[in-house]
Amino acid sequence: MKFCPKCGATDKDFYKGFCVDCYRNMNKFAEVPKRLKIIRCKDCGFWFYKGAWIEDSYHHLARIISEKVKTALFEPRFEVALKDDLANLTLSGFADENKAIPVTVKEEIKLSFEERTCDSCAKFNSKNHEFKIQLRGSEPFDAIKYKKLADAIKKQIEYLTRKDERARAFWIEEKKEGLDFLFGFRQAGEDVVHYILGNFKAKHEVSSESLGFDKDGKRKIRVTYCIRI
What we know:
By secondary structure, this protein is of the alpha+beta class. It has helices at 20-26, 58-68, 119-126, 143-163, 186-199, and strands spanning 14-15, 18-19, 30-31, 35-41, 47-49, 52-54, 70-71, 74-83, 86-94, 102-116, 131-136, 170-174, 178-183, 203-213, 219-228. It folds into two domains: 32-116, Double Stranded RNA Binding Domain (2-Layer Sandwich), CATH 3.30.160; 119-228. The strands form four sheets. It has a six-stranded mixed beta sheet, with helices on one face. A five-stranded mixed beta sheet has the order 12-13-11-15-14, covered by helices on one side. The model has no long low-confidence stretch (mean pLDDT 91).
């Protein structure tokens, strides 16, 4: 008759020589950090993680925590509950490949935040732009076409911000001649111009000016596209 050398039980399932209850209690199935520091933008609340600024969200926090946890469980699943500066982690999975021994680990993680300013907010706050789109009307002026293009530009920027957080460094200035769309980062502006020229019959002119050199010795250029429709 099988018996557990730890508790003496004979009427339980066994795994690796012990009853499953003692096996669970004898083994540490996960290493969970007691504290986790998150770098947070003091202006927009985005978090800095793995070289990029990401939106403050439950999904991202669960991913950050799961990547910090070392576990021997098969098919691990993570759930995170937030309360003030505490993250209550529930980790569930199986101790064996046959998924006969379910295991649940519960841990509390203390969160701390280091506040900085993200690249996009720094650009926005300083109104330092690398790219400008000047939207102007042609003669004769067609208000419907003009508004359609202006709305399309705004929607395209909203789309870009979901792909690249740097596109958030964007603002609009109303001029007597029309609208100026200003981009803190050149790539976002170039993407919008590519979209405009590919989807609208609009005339355009381009100019650029040198802004000197960055800290790496690369020349900085500010580009302006004048789009007429």
